[in-house]
Amino acid sequence: MPLRGLTREQEEAVLYDGHLLLTACPGSGKTKTLVSKIAYKLIDDQLSLGRKRIVAITYTNTAAETIMDRLDKLGIKTNNLWIGTIHSFCLEWIIRPYCGEHTLTRHRFRVLDEFESRSLISELKNKHGIGYFNPFPTALNQQYEIDATHGSNLYSALEEYHNTLIEKNCIDFDLILSISNQLLTATPEIALRLSRLFPYLYVDEYQDTNQRQYKILEKIIRHQNSILTFIGDVDQAIYTNLGAIAKNADQLKNDFQLDHIEVKNLSGCFRSTQRIIDFYKSFQDENINIVSKMIAPQEPSNINYKKNINRGELHQYIIDIVNQYKDLIDFNEMVIVAPTWRDVINLAKSMRQIAPEIPLDAPSVSPIPKSIDNYWYDLIKMYFTPISPDNYSRRKRMAQKILDNLAELGFVFEIGTVNLRSIVKAINSLNLNFDVEIHVFVSNLIDSFCFLINLDITSVSTASDAKQAFIDSIINRVREYEIINNASSLREYYRDRNGVSISTYHQTKGKEYELVIAYGLLKGKIPHWNDIIEGGNPVADYVARRLLYVICSRAKRHLYLISELGHSTRRGEPLIPTEQLTRFI
Amino acid sequence: MFIKTFTIRNFRNFRNAKFFLNNKSVNSILGENASGKTNFFYALRLVLDDSLPQNAKQLSSTDFFNGLDHPSGHWVVLSFVFGGLGESDEELVMANHAMQMASGDAEGVFTFAFRPKIHIRQQLFQRTNTEPNLQIRKENVKNYLSGIQIDSANYETVAFVRGTVDYLDDNEYESVAGNFNNYIFPNPDNDDAALLGAMKPPYFSLVKEVNCTYVKALRNVVADMKYSKNNPLFKLLVQKSNEIEGAETVEGAVKQLNRDISDLRQIKELSTALKSTLLKAIGQTYSPSLNITSGLPESIVELIQSLTLLVEDSYGYKGTGKIEDLSLGGANLIYLALKLYEYETNREGDDKIAHFLLIEEPEAHIHNHIQKTLFSNFSLENAQIIISTHSTQISSVSKISSMNVISRKNNYSEVYWPSKGIDSEEVNKIERYLDSSRSTLLFAKSVLLVEGDAEQILIPALIKAVFGICLDELGISLIKMDGTVFKHISSLFDENRLKINCSIITDHDQPFLNGVTDYANQEYMNKLSNSAVNGQTRYNDLNNTYRANAYIQPFFASNTFETELILAGNSDIFINILDSIYTQQARIDVITNHLNGQDSEKCYFALHLAKKVGKGWFAIMLADKVHERSHVPSYIIKSLKHVLTDHDKNNIFYEIMSYRMQKQDIEINTIQGTNKQEKLISFSQLYPSDPLTKLMN
Q: Is the ipTM here above 0.85?
């Protein structure tokens, strides 16, 4: 069943049984292939997995959700599958079971909220006289020490950062990786046991994996008990400035001590016309051939570049493009891509004023922070996931996650009193007033839920701390992004996409639209000044081309690129269009 | 995977107890009644047996150790160390990851705890951590806890893996659960995973990974076999009914049979007759219709489940074949066989990582020889068997290295390990010497070891006659064994092993004669001196060996038992039996004189008589004649005193006192005192030479 509807290339990738490096060009059906590959293994009767697991590491939780959804729809039992981000993986399989082996996790700990982390960092930057835009490398270095020169302001600030974390009994995301590495190094048995548990390991978007993460996987794979599959596209490596490394087959073979790693490509692009493909191909590093496999034959595909437009006229120009296509293309199939969230917010505001008849997909900034490890996040999410046959499995999984989160917080329920059913029942029976401020609404939601399942949140300090952090985070986001502070607008964020999307460059990865309008394509944004200054020209060039590759490959048919005039640096010099772009046009 | 050790803290009659188990032989749990054997099994099952109801893990206040004043605030802990992990067994991967210690040896730790919920533990901490005064802390805690019941609102069940706390050790236990003597409690927000262990991962369920079959003690086999729920045969039949091939043929045959029976002429006639009677009585309109038909089950599943066991007590014996008519032993054996088969099929069929078979008192209703061979053919492949027993047959064939002895003290029970610290060669020797009669020492509260038939027969009789107490009743075993064996057996009584007292009663063999007399010649003297040398060696040897051991003490007759007996002032009983030995009155008179003569004369002739009759038979004859005024040799009294060390001495001495007073017609109220202790003191002052007084001092 999982092999149905696959192309030859995809089928080969699914069936190949050995270490595999699969390059999936944009629109080549990567997720479909990955789902099929996992499904194929899961239903294989010959393979008695027993208590072992197939592990799939994805870049985001959303990606993991998507894959789970698809497997559910195929009717595949997923008991033997573990899927999630590398951080979730480390928490669940390395840190929590062996928490007694490390000083930072011996006592009841929690993962620091994204907001808490940012506000702590800005507070410390202020206190120690470090510039707002200056880097603050909270991650420890190779020797697990603070990554700064002894005696410097930065060093003291970082030291205070880590001490604060210890005081609060918290660890941050980077520490999840450091601690995991330390545990695996100190107790080699852990990696050995894990290698026996995981006969298959899939890494999605491997080009976004950083060195620490590679190290963790290497320690497990080196026992040669697992078959490894890397899926991704080095040309879409847009997180190198965060330390991601796009390794090639030889490097992977070396680092993971593999006998052999097979290289395969998914080169058929189902998404875009050949014209679009040929355009964005120019930003590639390797000259990989991509063939359009669009179902509809070649219809006129428009690629347009405008650079002599003033920023004041920008919004109207964009609206004009949208109007131009509104009879040909559904609004849902249009996206406007901008450099930063601020741009997204401003554009959305502006469009609502000038052209209110154009439906907009709510700006993707939700007041609810998506911190993966905030224990109350899943509760909100489940509340807003409507009850429908389609959502059955998803809601069930969310309820399980909520139950697990509560257990993490230290609430232990007597067997039979609180279970999946009572969680679902409690959430379904919540009756809340939406005409209040968002954080008040969320607070009420949490309190009512706890009341229904007989939970005293004040009895566990980690739980009430986590709740407070969550609420503070919401208050801050509402203020920072100037979101209308009324809970009735919350439904918008969870509703199915409807209307023209507005997104940042990075957020658009993995998505596809008939029409893509991208603006702000200026040197200093693409590539970012940080990359130019720190990395120098080769790095800046590399980074810029990656971003352009990703942006342009979102388009199915029509691509409108804009390098507007009127922006300047702090010193007043005008920003020029992205050179990597002008070179080709 | 198998259980290596099982530690119980604060559960029912166990304050802190540790059991050592292995997977090389059948593990036996020995113990007197009410020592806690069933509690031990229940504790195991709480964690390992999924046939217990869900709410079994929600313990109640009666499940806490009865020696605690108030259970509220305390923890019940059941902790396992599993062995056999770490091997690259496909099935063990999850258990390895979840439970195995970081250090990598093949052990894993799993701890079940029933403890106060976090808000209560926080309160306990907050109310005491800043208060320097013990009294106030105590007040605070007591006041708070008086309002806390043991129920689901206040208590939780949790499971930890990989902990390092030794729950047997009071300090370590108190560091995680709190100290109820000085009222200091740990901060629950600082629960240390390096000590307690990590919370059990949600994807690992121990009870689902193991299979546990339990055979209870009180087996009403016939009743159990009647009711399908408990009937092990029924369960097996249900399993099998799913696998039957050729079901249709059988079902078809039954259907046909039903039709044939229903069609029998007589049956049809009866049917018709009934119908017409009904019609006549009620009339057409209201008459229900009826038909007599054969209703043998027509579905293969029902058919199989209706099968019953045809049993006979032995080959060739033709009885009714029904289980009700089987002998009790036969029925029990059948029941056991069914349970064992159930266990075997489970073991082969599934992918569980461990299989446990728990049997309480398999010896019930089963003859000695069968008891001995019961498990000799049982395979221990991938399995662990734990039995509890009262049977000396079973214990005689069991390995003492696989034994745990539960000893019941006043309000708690202790666990002893007979072979701890003894090397395997020595263990083998001991096992060889522990035949069925000797293995009673494993069940005893204390032990008297004697060398000869005479001691074995006479000592209990003497004690019964003089003190009115029965050794068995007090749980004191008197065991006869050869002197050379003493050393091996007595190594069982030790601080690390059986903590029970043992008196060794033996002879010093010192000569009672200085020189040749008219009745004792030189040859005799030589024999005496030789024995004396050996005796002295033995004396030194035993004293040296046991100098440092508080539990064992040797007691010596200065010559032999018989001589001590007569020298204690018991000539009368020797004299009393003379007419059973000699027919001629003249001879009797002569011997009587000797027996009343000088000490050495008495000794010589006492021994002479014993030799003539045969020591054992002689002892039987003497035993018949002892009475309440007989004299117990003082070394025997001392040995008795030693074995009474851990017993409830006050009550025992009081019983003895009542007996002695009654036998001597002394009025009870002539003894002064408001309680037993005072009365005993006045008795000893009034009757300083009474054997009881000697016993008490």
A: no
